[in-house]
Design a protein that fits this description.
2 copies of one chain form a homodimer. Chain A has 2 domains: about 45 residues, no CATH class; about 140 residues, 3-Layer(aba) Sandwich (Beta-carbonic Anhydrase, Chain A), CATH 3.40.1050.10. Chain A is built from 8 helices and 5 strands; from the N terminus they run H-H-H-H-E-E-H-E-H-H-H-E-E. The first copy, chain A, has about 190 residues and is α/β, with parallel strands linked by helices. The interface between A and B is large, with 99 and 99 residues. Chains A, B: It catalyses: hydrogencarbonate + H(+) = CO2 + H2O.
C-alpha cells in the first residue's frame, strides 16, 4: 500500500470541502483576511498576488506556506534538497519573466541533511545497487551539499543578486528556519 | 518594501505561537491527530515519517501540504516550474538514499503556465534586457514546458519508474490538481 492509495483521497476530500472557506486557512493568511468563497479561491489568478518566489528546502519539517504566511494565491514555492538557488534558476526565470514576481525569499534550515554528507558518499551508496554502466551518470550528479548553514544562505542570496538572468530590481533575502521552534531568522 | 520586510515577521510570529499545537494544524493532519506539543513538533526526526516525496509545481494556487494532508514531518516537498521530474532527480536520489522515502507523488495542475509558452519565447523575452554576452547561456535554458497536461503527468511518472537511479520498489503515482476546486484527480 501507499500514502496515495490509502490516505490521500480522504485528506484531499477534506481539503475540497473547506476549499475557499475560512476553515481551511491559517493565521495571517490572505485567504482568511478577505474570507474567500469557494468561487473566489477557485478563480485566483495565475500570477502570484504578493509577487514573491520562495526558494526553500524540501525538508519534511518545513511548511513554506504556514511558516511564512504565504498561502494559496500569494507566491511561488520552489523547493529542492537544500533549497539551492542554482537549481531553482529555470523556475525563477519563468516566475519573473512570465508571472511577474519581483522578490525572492531563500529558506534553508537547521538540522539539514545537506550538512551531513558529501557527494562522494552518495555516489558510493548508489553504485552499490546499479549496473556499472550507470557509474558515469552517478559521478556527474552534484549533490550541492554544504558544510556551513549560514554560508549556504549568504552564498545563494549572493548568487541570485549577481546572476545576469535574474532581474536587477529583485529584492532577495535569506532566512534560516529553526526546525526546533518554527522561527524564521533573517540571515541576509 | 517587500513581503519579507513588511509581513513575514508577524506571520512567522503567529506560526511560532501555534508551533506544535492543534491550532496550527489542518484536517487530517498527522499533527492534529496526535496533538503534538511544541517539544514534540520541535523534535520531529529528519526522515519523512510517511516515506513520501512529492514532486509538484511551484504554482501559487497549489498548497502541496494542505491539498494532500502531508504536513510537517510527513514528506519531502520538491517543487519547480511545472513539477518536472527530471529536474527533481538530484533531490529524489538524496530523499531515497539518505532519508528513506519509498513513494513519489507527482502533482501537475490545471491552468498551468507551462502550457502557455515555448522556450523560444522565454529566451526572446530575456534577451531584450541582458547583454548579448549572455545569449548562449539563455539559449541553453530549457524551460521544460509542455503542451498536454495529462501527458506531462504520465511522462514524468514513466520517467521516474524507468530511471536507473530511482529505487525499483518505489511506488510512483501522478495526480492532476484542479485549481478551480482543490481536487487531486488520479491520472496514473
Amino acid at each position: 500500500m501507499s500514502y496515495a492509495a490509502e490516505s490521500l483521497p480522504a485528506a484531499n476530500k477534506a481539503y475540497q470541502a473547506n476549499f475557499g472557506s475560512k476553515a481551511s486557512c491559517e493565521p495571517f493568511s490572505r485567504l482568511k483576511c478577505i474570507e474567500l468563497t469557494q468561487d473566489q479561491q477557485g478563480s485566483l489568478p495565475l500570477p502570484p498576488g504578493k509577487k514573491v518566489a520562495i526558494v526553500g528546502c524540501m525538508d519534511a519539517r518545513l511548511d513554506t506556506s504556514a511558516a511564512t504566511g504565504l498561502h494559496e494565491g500569494d507566491s511561488h514555492h520552489i523547493r529542492n534538497a537544500g533549497g539551492r538557488a542554482a537549481e531553482a534558476l529555470r523556475s525563477l526565470v519563468i516566475s519573473q519573466e512570465l508571472l511577474g514576481t519581483r522578490e525572492i525569499i531563500v529558506i534553508h534550515h537547521t538540522d539539514c541533511g545537506m550538512l551531513t554528507f558529501k557527494s562522494e558518499r552518495l555516489h558510493d551508496l548508489i553504485k552499490k545497487r546499479v549496473d556499472p554502466a550507470h557509474y558515469p551518470a552517478i559521478e556527474q550528479l552534484a549533490a550541492l551539499e554544504f558544510g556551513d548553514l549560514d554560508k549556504s544562505i549568504t552564498d545563494d542570496v549572493a548568487f541570485l543578486k549577481a546572476h545576469p538572468l535574474i532581474l536587477k530590481e529583485t529584492v532577495v533575502s535569506g532566512y534560516k528556519y529553526h526546525v526546533e521552534t518554527g522561527e524564521l531568522e533573517k540571515v541576509v
